Amino acid sequence: MGAIAAGALVNRMLMALLGISGEITTTSGVIRSTMNNLMMQNPLIAPALLLLILILAAIMGAVTGAIFILPSARLSEDYLAITLLAISEVMFMVAYYNPNIIGGYYGVSVPDIFAWAPAEWRTVLFASLVIVTAAVIYILLDRILTSPYGRLLRAMREDEEVVKACGREVMWIRVRTVALGSAVAAIAGALYSLYTLNVIATSFGRVEWTFYPFLMILLGGAGNRKGILLGTLSFVLIKILLTTYKYEISDLLHLPFETVWLEYIIFGVMMLLILLYRPEGLLKEEPIMTEPMKRCVNEEH
Predict the structure, then answer these.
(1) Which is an annotated Pfam family here (predicted)?
(2) Which of 12, 56, 117, 231 falls between 20 and 30 A from 225, CA-CA?
(3) How far is 6 from 148, CA to CA, in rounded Å?
C-alpha cells in the first residue's frame, strides 16, 4: 500500500497540481523530472512531499488492512495468516496486471526527495532518513506495547478465550492491530519506493517482504522489540556477507550448485534451526513492568 500511495495516489495528485495529463505510465517520468527541478530550486518542497507520501501511505495501509481483515477476523490464527497471505497475493496480481494503478508490469517513476543534494550524498541521506523513521516508529510502538493495550495483545496471544471471558471483543482488537501493523508496513513500502525511484509490483515479492521479515523476528525473538532489532541487524549483516563473499564460499566448500541459491538455502536452514533449537530467538521476551509492579519489586528489595 505504501508503494501504491507513492506511485499511484501522489503521482496523480501531482499530475492535477502541475497540469499534466495522460496515462500514469507515460507521465510519471515527466512528473519526476518536473518535481526534481522544483526541489533543486526550492529544497523545502522535499520534506513537505516526503511527509505527504508517508502520511498517505500510513492512512492507506491502515484502512486497507482494517478492511481486508474484516471478512477473516473471526478465524483462528493459522487460517487468518493463510487468508491474509492470499489477500496480499491477490493485491500483488491486481497491481501487476492492471496498468491503471501503478503502471502494471511497466511500473511508474516517483520523484527523488533528495534531488536537491549532490548525488554522492544520496545514500547517506536516505540511510539517515530510514534510521530516524525507524527510531520514531520504535518509540511509538514501545509506548503502545507497554500500555494496557499492549498487555491486552499479549493476553490475547496467550489465550483468546481468557480475553473473551474478560468481556473483550477479540475481532475488533485484531482489526485495530492489523490496521496499525499495515500502516507501519505501508510506511516501509513508501520509503523503499522513494529509494528505488520506481514502483513496480515485482519489487515486493513474498521472499523479501514476507519470509525475510518473519525470519528477522524469529531470529531476534518474537514479542521482543530489542530482539527484533538484534535479529534485523544480524540478518542484514549475514545477507551482506553472503552477497559479498558467496563466490569465495562456493569455491572454498566446492558447492555442487549455483551460488545464487546459497542465500536462500542458508536462510531456509537458519529458520529450521531456530524453530527446532531456539524458538525464543536470540533474546527472550521480557515481562512488561508497569510502574506499580516496579514499586512492588523495589519495596521487596
Answers:
(1) BPD_transp_2
(2) 56
(3) 34
Q: What are phi and psi of 292, to 5 degrees?
A: -60, -40
- Note the pTM of the prediction, 2 decimals: 0.81
Q: How many helices (H) and strands (E) would you count in the chain?
A: 15, 2
Single-letter residue type at 265: I
H or E segment to which residue 199 belongs:
strand 198-199
Tens of pLDDT along 49-105? 889 999 998 998 888 888 877 776 666 667 777 777 787 788 888 878 888 877 777
The chain-wide mean pLDDT, for the chain, equals: 81
Closest CA to 170 of 73, 68, 71: 73
CA angle 242, 267, 240 (to 5 degrees): 25
Backbone angles phi, psi at 223, to 5 degrees: 75, 20
**DSSP reduced 3-state for 146:** coil
Confidence band (pLDDT; 50, 70, 90) for 187? very high
State the distance between the two ends of the chain, measured CA to CA, in whole angstroms: 50
Q: How far is CA 202 from CA 28, 157, 216, in A?
A: 18, 33, 22
- Measured between alpha carbons, how far is 39 from 224 in angstroms, rounded to an integer? 40
Per the CB < 8 A criterion, the answer to whether 142 and 64 are in contact is: no
Cite the DSSP H helix spans in the chain: 2-4, 10-18, 24-41, 45-69, 77-97, 99-102, 122-145, 148-158, 160-165, 170-196, 206, 212-220, 225-253, 262-277, 291-300
Phi and psi torsions of 108, nearest 5°: -135, 160
Residue (of 208, 132, 181, 193) closest to 9 by Cα position: 193
* Amino acid residing at 105: Y
Measured distance CA(111)–CA(92) in Å, rounded: 23
Q: Which of 13-27, 117-131, 278-292 bottoms out in mean pLDDT, i.e. has the lowest? A: 278-292
